[in-house]
UniProtKB/TrEMBL annotation:
Xref: SUPFAM superfamilies: Six-hairpin glycosidases (SSF48208)
Organism lineage: Bacteria, Pseudomonadati, Pseudomonadota, Gammaproteobacteria, Pseudomonadales
EC number: 5.-.-.-
Top enzyme category: isomerase
Molecular function as annotated in GO: isomerase activity
Protein name: AGE family epimerase/isomerase
Signal peptide: none
Keywords: Isomerase
């Protein structure tokens, strides 16, 4: 199935996913600025003083590249806009790497999370045919290898000062998860298997080592020696990127990535551990058991404590997007009805509570009572998670998204 369209999605559902993707794109187009992409509010408007945000620009560039590869008109121009911004105003010409926005603070940090998305955007843009993308991709790879990849650790370092002289005394699962995603794409675009081998080393440490020993609940925060920091952000429990405790949405996301990695290793004829599937099952089962309807209301809570009790009970759109995509991946990989049932269950929740048919896109956050809220995430700046959720069920597990779409055309 590696080169084929997913055999599990029927015609009507596939058509619905395609239409929902088009609806998401219509909303997201309004985020374009003269130099990159900005964050949209709940009604799809940019603030009067909006500036380009690097994470948003990278995610939009990646998503519009996927849309172009689907044959959607007008998207290549948006890809070129994003590439130009990432190669221009958002790039730190003095020290290398990327600023967080077009108006950075004087000593803004250089984060692995952000740089992984720049690499993902550049790789997808190159597959989409952007003329300037290869140079951007080469720059992104150079920065990752020079600063973020730690060969001795088999993982990504977290962040540095702007001039790369000071390293943060922290290691994060989230940045390494998105590094894994980017490495899968880099392996396809460059043809270099080292990126798959690096992705496997990350997974061996973060998931097969730490998460498996923790009942397949992902440990998010570590010190420089990869010792868990279980009290990290206990005084800032609802942080949007580094919340306290367990983040079940990342359990779903890691489960899917393990299956993509398994398929990619097989496609490249590289050694493929049997435990990748077993660990994906474990991550999915743990997240479903402990986070779905855990407080008595429908949906998946944002975070749990170390006793698997709800901490931050808001329902975030990206969590449910990743849950549906993980269910689709496990369904495709195993053919088991339990994953088909979960897939339908997650999409039923998305359609009932998250899809905003009035203002457009998806509500990015719901209260514990499943009403629109904005305590963690304001507005609707993120196309990436929802758009991938409508694409992933229609594609095979490998190659990665952009390459898979290019080969399907």
């Amino acid at each position: 199935m590696n080169h084929a369209q997913s055999p599990l999605i029927d015609g009507p559902h596939s058509a619905w996913l395609d239409a929902e993707g088009q609806r998401l794109l219509v909303f997201a187009r309004a985020s374009q600025l003269e130099l990159g992409f900005g964050n949209l509010d709940s009604y799809g408007h940019l603030a009067a003083d909006a500036i380009a945000d690097t994470i948003t620009t990278a995610r939009m560039t990646h998503s519009f590249a996927l849309a172009h590869l689907q044959g959607r008109s007008g998207c290549l121009e948006l890809v070129e806009l994003g590439v130009a911004a990432l190669a221009g105003t958002l790039r730190d010409v003095e020290h290398g790497g990327w600023h967080a926005s077009a108006a950075p603070a004087g000593d803004s940090i250089k984060a692995a999370y952000l740089h992984a998305f720049v690499a993902l955007a550049a790789s997808s843009a190159q597959v989409a045919g952007s003329a300037a993308a290869p140079a951007l991709l080469a720059q992104a790879i150079e920065i990752i290898e020079a600063h973020f990849w730690s060969e001795s650790e088999g993982a990504l370092r977290e962040s540095f000062s702007r001039d790369w002289q000071q390293q943060e005394a922290y290691r994060g699962a989230n940045s390494n998860m998105h590094g894994t995603e980017a490495f899968l794409a880099l392996a396809d675009v460059t043809g270099e298997p080292i990126w798959l081998q690096r992705a496997l080393r990350i997974v061996e440490r973060v998931i097969h080592g730490h998460a498996r020993a923790n009942g397949f609940s992902v440990i998010e925060h570590f010190d420089l020696h990869w010792q868990p920091l279980t009290d990290y952000n206990s005084d800032n429990r609802a942080d949007g990127y580094r919340p306290y405790g367990v983040t079940p949405g990342h359990g779903f996301e890691w489960a899917r990535l393990l299956l993509h990695l398994e398929a990619a290793l097989q496609l490249a004829d590289l050694p493929t551990p049997d435990w990748l599937l077993a660990d994906a099952r474990g991550l999915f089962a743990s997240a479903c058991e402990h986070a779905w309807h855990t407080d008595g209301a429908p949906g998946i809570v944002y975070t749990l404590d170390w006793q698997q009790r709800p901490v931050v009970r808001q329902r975030l759109h990206w969590v449910h997007a990743e849950a549906s995509a993980a269910a689709a991946a496990l369904w495709q990989r195993t053919g088991e009805a339990q994953y088909q049932c979960w897939y339908g269950r997650f999409w039923a929740f998305i359609q009932a509570h998250l899809i905003d048919n009035d203002a457009g896109s998806w509500h990015h956050e719901l209260s514990p009572d499943n009403l629109p809220s904005a305590t963690i995430w304001a507005g609707k700046p993120d196309l990436y998670h929802a758009y991938q959720a409508v694409l992933l069920p229609t594609l095979a597990l490998a190659p990665s998204l952009a390459t898979g779409l290019a080969r399907r055309m």
